[in-house]
Design brief:
Elements lengths: L1 H14 L6 E3 L19 H7 L5 E3 L21 E2 L2 E2 L38 H5 L5 H14 L9 E5 L4 E5 L3 E6 L5 E4 L5 E15 L3 E16 L5
Parallel strand pairs: 1-2
Antiparallel strand pairs: 3-4, 5-6, 6-7, 7-10, 8-10, 9-10
Length: about 230
């Protein structure tokens, strides 16, 4: 996390308030979020982080449903660069359970790259009406960012804990907790700095005693708070 924060500070200083720093989930040159041993059940916290950080979020097609990076594919147009197999992030979008995952009516052999062979591959159709799906997590987070401007690009960000769980505030109104690890984690908020909190969206994160954050594996929570009043 420290490496990211350092890179973020450099990028933020470079634009000097004259633009935005883009924060993509992936792109056609880098591995997708779901890659190797990482499953789509693990990546919702990544979206919670991306969609509450003061950057310009870019969701690479398919990441919102957990399309998997596929190793071992044939090279296309120079996609193989040394040991980097960039074609693994460029497979067709997976819309439904029809032929070619609903991407094309062409013969499978004519596709630019093959469809993921896993019969359990995620699709938009399967996740659209499933309230527990990754797609629904992403939709809820996008809606939350749109509803609360403090979660967007304009408000300040203050990191309270740069370890797991990552804990930061946006502006003077919102608290974000992200635990991308496989372990239960906790963090005690600075006593008296935050007033009463109200959960907006939570997935495995709770607040005990008003100050102790409990975060289950691969969890996140976004809260609204009122700054604590201090009497002189």
């Amino acid at each position: 996390m420290q490496e990211f924060l350092h890179a973020w500070q450099e990028a933020d200083a470079a634009i000097a308030g004259s633009g935005y720093v883009a924060l993509p989930t992936a792109n056609h040159d880098f591995s997708r979020l779901v890659c190797g041993t990482r499953t789509r059940d693990m990546v919702a916290p990544a979206f919670a982080f991306q969609l509450t950080w003061p950057a310009l979020p870019v969701i690479y097609y398919g990441d919102e449903i957990g399309v998997r990076y596929l190793p071992g594919l044939p090279t296309k147009e120079g996609s193989q660069l040394g040991s980097e197999a960039r074609q693994g992030s460029r497979t067709p979008m997976q819309w439904d359970s029809t032929a070619n995952a609903g991407f094309s009516t062409a013969h499978a052999d004519d596709l630019y790259l093959p469809i993921a062979p896993d019969p359990e591959r995620p699709t938009v159709a399967a996740q659209r009406d499933d309230p527990t799906s990754l797609l629904q997590h992403v939709r809820a987070l996008i809606a939350l960012r749109a509803e609360y401007p403090a979660l967007g690009t304009g408000a300040t960000v203050t990191v309270l804990n740069a370890d797991y769980p990552l804990v930061h505030t946006r502006g003077e109104t919102h608290l974000v907790v992200v635990n991308p690890s496989a372990a239960d984690t906790q963090f005690t908020l600075p006593d008296g700095e935050l007033g009463r909190t109200r959960a907006l969206v939570t997935h495995g994160v709770s607040v005990a005693g008003g100050i102790t954050l409990q975060a289950a594996p691969f969890s996140y929570g976004i809260f609204e708070f009122s700054p604590a009043s201090h009497s002189g």
